[in-house]
Design goal:
This protein is of the alpha/beta class and 466 residues long. Helices cover 39% and strands 14% of the residues. It is built from 15 helices and 14 strands. The structure holds beta-D-fucopyranose. The site of beta-D-fucopyranose has 12 residues, from loops.
């Protein structure tokens, strides 16, 4: 059977985030996060779901680490909950919060699974939001304190650090569309938030270098493959603006020390920033943000078509994808478009030249349940993963330094504004009993890891494709 072989050093892993799986909301002195507050407000999260228990990973992490071992994972990307470490956002460190991650890291290392730590996956301490949140410059310095506490404790064993997960979501969805916590709808605040997130990244890089020598440090961006709906001037303009706000706004500061001038001009015209420009950028900020990093994390899910009539800035807005048949969309309504991953990786390599690239998230929401035989026949997810891995492989063939891949996600979990209604896991979670059931896709992925290769065919039992 024909297959595509990956480099011998290629890193195979899976990803999760703290708020989405841990639960233990008030365990051992954890403080409140913006997602606790946001999810308790009726109407913000589907079916009124919250993260109080989630996958109860806080209490079940050992079993989950065993599960990863059983699935052959080489690396595990997880995030740390800031309000567990610093319940007041800054200042006093909560020892019990730190020891949870300390033990998790040791459990992983004992099983030869490399920990990849994300410092911020959207769960800002609520107390900092009360002081203005990310639009307040002081939050960046609180993040530096938090980085200091975590890296001092874990920096001897954790050698892979991701400062932020998708600052686009944290700023734009949190402060502009309001569909994520803290639920604010204010462009000027969202732009200030985006800058302070990037600034906090820069501050954090220096601290990590000091506290965790010989580690690899990077940031993860949500990168979308954006295309204009047509060749018309208006659609091309919509494309330029969307690509600029989603992709370039978060890449240019890292690799070019500046924000994209065309988008700055757009925001000035809309009145979101003053005539003088970006008042929140202080001298020296851009140098800090552009501090050399070792790798770029890329999260890729779908493509987005830009049309002049409606510029979809929202994760949850239906992707405008030419009335696709349902079998080409996931349960999120997102188009399955593997070629976009190749294009995104090639573009990032061509235009920004990161030394190393990792796909830090890629996956699909599909709802297949355990059948009477106990199997979860999620062949659509197998197809999605296979086709995206082939797309990733094709990027490596054209010279992209892609060195690893993390499937989103290990477990079905709290999918933000969708609560538990969308299932991204390669392992099924019964949220009543907390029982885990390995889905077919996880067995399939285990074979990929074992062979370090993806075969072009597969027994996924999908009559539409085979
Ligand atoms: C990404 C997030 C991740 C998950 C996936 C589906 O934007 O980083 O937490 O929600 O989308």
């Amino acid at each position: 059977m024909e297959s595509k072989q990956f480099d011998r050093q290629f890193i195979w892993g899976c990803a999760t985030s703290a708020f989405q799986i841990e639960g233990g909301a008030s365990a051992d002195g954890r403080g409140e996060s913006i997602w606790d507050r946001f999810s308790k407000k009726p109407g913000n999260v589907a079916e009124g779901h919250d993260g109080d228990v989630a996958c109860d990973h806080y209490n079940r992490y050992r079993g989950d680490v065993d599960l990863m071992k059983e699935l052959g994972m080489k690396a595990y990307r997880f995030s740390i909950s800031w309000p567990r470490i610093l319940p007041d956002g800054r200042g006093a460190v909560n020892e019990k919060g730190l020891s949870f991650y300390d033990e998790l890291v040791d459990a992983l290392l004992e099983r030869e699974i490399t920990p990849w730590v994300t410092l911020y996956h959207w769960d800002l301490p609520q107390i900092l939001e009360d002081e203005g949140g990310w639009p307040n410059r002081k939050t960046a310095y609180a993040f530096a304190e938090y980085t200091e506490a975590v890296s001092r404790r874990l920096g001897d064993r954790v050698k892979h650090w991701i400062t932020h997960n998708e600052p686009w979501c944290a700023s734009i969805l949190g402060y502009q569309t309001g569909e994520h916590a803290p639920g604010i709808k204010d462009w000027p605040k969202a732009l200030a938030a985006s800058h302070h997130l990037m600034l906090s990244h820069g501050l954090s890089v220096g601290i990590l270098r000091r506290n965790s020598p010989d580690s690899l440090i990077g940031i993860t961006n949500a990168l979308m493959h954006v295309q204009p709906a047509s060749g018309s001037y208006e659609d091309r303009e919509a494309y330029r603006h969307l690509d600029g706000t989603v992709n370039r706004w978060f890449m240019d500061p890292l690799y070019r020390r500046c924000y994209p001038a065309d988008i700055v001009a757009d925001h000035r015209e809309s009145g979101y920033i003053s005539r003088e420009g970006l008042s929140f950028v202080y001298p020296g900020d851009m140098d800090l943000i552009a501090a050399p990093i070792d790798f770029l994390g890329v999260n890729y899910y779908s493509r987005q078509i830009a049309r002049s009539t409606a510029i979809p800035e929202s994760k949850n807005a239906p992707r405008d994808i030419f009335a696709l048949p349902p079998d080409q969309r996931t349960d999120m309504g997102w188009e399955v478009y593997p070629d976009g991953l190749t294009r995104v990786l090639e573009r990032v390599h061509r235009e920004y030249r990161p030394g190393q690239i990792y796909v830090t998230e890629n996956g699909a929401a599909y709802g297949e349940k355990p059948g009477a035989d106990g199997r979860v026949p999620d062949s659509r997810r197998c197809v999605y993963l296979r086709d995206h891995l082939l797309a990733a492989h094709s990027a490596t063939e054209s010279g992209v330094p892609l060195l690893g891949y993390f499937v989103w996600s290990l477990l079905d979990n709290f999918e933000w504004a969708f609560g538990y209604t969308k299932r991204f896991g390669i392992v099924w979670v019964d949220f009543e009993t907390q029982q885990r059931t390995i889905k077919d896709s996880a067995y399939w992925y285990r074979e990929v890891i074992r062979n370090n290769a993806v075969s072009l065919n597969g027994a996924f039992n999908n009559p539409n494709r085979y």
